[in-house]
Specification:
By secondary structure, the protein is of the alpha+beta class. The protein has eleven helices and four strands, in the order H-H-H-H-E-E-H-H-H-H-E-E-H-H-H. The chain has helices at residues 3-18, 42-45, 70-80, 82-103, 150-216, 222-257, 282-292, 294-315, 360-426, 432-467, 472-476, and strands at 108-120, 130-146, 320-329, 343-352. The chain starts with a helix and ends with a helix.
């Protein structure tokens, strides 16, 4: 080993340790980003949700002076959600664990370089002193050739856990997406209620104006005017309450979007109704859910990983065969340097046989088997919960869809009745009681219409979420 080579190696090591880590664009110690190809494609390409054709864009620039569209709300929420970022980091963690499992199939090589001065002085002058300076080097190669399936099982478990992390990320995405869409629709519903209450206040104002004109002409009594005044006050109170609910729903929406609290949000007019995504039978929804729901897929992969861990635990107590090779120059570890240049190379095959470990392996296997039972129960619980949510959502969606048409007919009839009553009242053919009753009936019809729309939107969303196939394109459909 030349002194020049020794100085070069030392210089590289010192430079690598002294260079500021945060400013490194290239890591001299670990120069390879993903040498074993463990990172899934979604890390670079991005996640594409079911039904979408492109990954989620996280460079959203929103002008909040314009009404917030549903698609914009979805993009903002998905990019700002901390749970999504945590699930994304978990994918990278599991990819690293998969790399460790794959690395177990490769040989491990270690080496060291030293410059040693060995000086010996004897108290007895009959023995000459010695002063030897040598460049020494040691290198060791260790390569496991055979075990009883431990590495293979560990590798398969790591792959399953990575698949589980990917599925869990999709489930987190869909949960966050469901939350933002629910909050968005609630805000739109609150705005529609405010618009309806504002219109009801205007109608009550017109009725009061007509009552006062009739009282001035002697066509009605003061009692009619007082009743109309009371109805107007009630309409104003309901409008104020609707205004408060709308403001609260905007605050909740802004929180879910992850935008500053002082951001002023505005929403478009009522989004109307959507009648899609319900035509399939319940059995078809259940079958699709079992195949595609990310939470179920994650639970299944975790169960398979736990099953592989049992094999890993069993193999830990079995023999292993490894190839070993060592190289020594001028010394062995713990020995004095040689007086002359010497090089030594050893090659061997090692058979390691565990004889007794205090029953540690037995308890590791029992613990791994218990984890399998735990994951089986978790999978069954996940499937049960999702199936129950799907059944309820399917029933709610069917009921809400039927109520849409009925509520529309009810609202049309109430509006027609109010128009007739107003014309009759203006002509003196109806009293104040009739017109106030028709106003109340219209308010109830508008309330039912808004309620039916909200129930349908919520049921449609929960149906898609329970089936595990919510995408940005699906929730943006009108």
């Amino acid at each position: 080993m030349s002194a020049k080579l020794l100085r070069t190696g030392a210089a590289i090591l010192v430079a690598g340790l002294s260079w500021p880590t945060v400013t490194l664009a290239f890591d001299p110690i670990y120069p390879f980003t993903d040498p074993l190809r463990t990172m899934p494609e979604v890390i670079e390409q991005g996640v594409v949700l079911p039904g979408d054709s492109a990954p989620i864009p996280c460079s959203v620039q929103k002008d909040f002076s314009r009404p917030l569209a549903l698609g914009e709300a979805v993009d903002l929420a998905l990019c700002n959600n901390p749970q999504i970022r945590s699930a994304w980091a978990d994918i990278k963690i599991q990819a690293g664990a998969l790399g460790e499992a794959r690395a177990a199939y490769l040989p491990a090589l270690t080496g060291s370089l030293n410059r040693t001065n060995d000086r010996i002085r004897y108290s007895d002058s009959r023995y000459p002193s010695s002063n030897i300076t040598r460049n020494t080097a040691q290198g060791t190669l260790n390569w496991r050739l055979f075990d009883f399936g431990g590495r293979a099982a560990n590798h398969q478990a790591a792959e399953n856990l990575l698949a589980a992390a990917l599925a869990n990320h999709n489930a987190t995405l869909q949960k966050a997406l469901s939350s933002v869409v629910q909050a968005y629709f609630e805000a739109v519903t609150a705005k529609a209620a405010l618009v309806a209450k504002t219109a009801g206040e205007e109608i009550a104002q017109k009725t009061l104006h007509s009552a006062r004109q009739r009282e001035e002409k002697g066509a009605s009594s003061q009692s009619d005017t007082l009743q109309a005044t009371t109805a107007l006050a009630k309409s104003s109170l309901e409008k104020n309450r609707a205004q408060g609910e709308y403001g609260k729903s905007l605050s909740v929406l802004g929180y879910i979007l992850g935008i500053p609290a002082n951001t002023a949000l505005s929403l478009p007019e009522d989004l109307g109704e959507s009648r899609d995504e319900h035509g399939k039978a319940l059995s078809e929804w259940l079958e699709e859910t079992q195949k595609n729901h990310p939470a179920i897929l994650a639970a299944r992969n975790q169960l398979e990983a736990a099953q592989q861990r049992v094999t890993v635990a069993r193999s830990a107590g079995m023999p292993t065969v490894a190839l070993t090779s060592s190289y020594y120059q001028n010394t062995r570890p713990g020995e004095a340097v040689t007086s002359t240049d010497a090089k030594e190379t050893t090659v061997g095959v090692t058979l390691s046989i565990p004889i007794f470990d205090g029953f540690s392996s037995t308890h590791k296997v029992r613990g791994a088997q218990a984890q399998v039972e735990q994951k089986e129960a978790a999978l069954a619980d996940t499937e049960h919960q999702i199936a129950m949510e799907l059944i309820k959502a399917h029933a709610d969606a069917a009921s809400a869809l039927n109520n849409l048409e009925a509520s529309a007919h009810l609202l049309d009839a109430a509006r027609s009745a109010l128009n007739v009553s107003q014309r009759k009242y203006d002509k003196g053919a109806a009293d104040i009681i009739e017109i106030l009753n028709t106003q109340g009936a219209l308010a109830d019809a508008e309330k039912e219409r808004i309620r039916c729309l909200a129930e349908w939107r919520s049921a449609r969303l929960r149906l898609l979420a329970s089936a595990g196939r919510i995408g940005r394109s699906a929730v943006a459909a009108k």
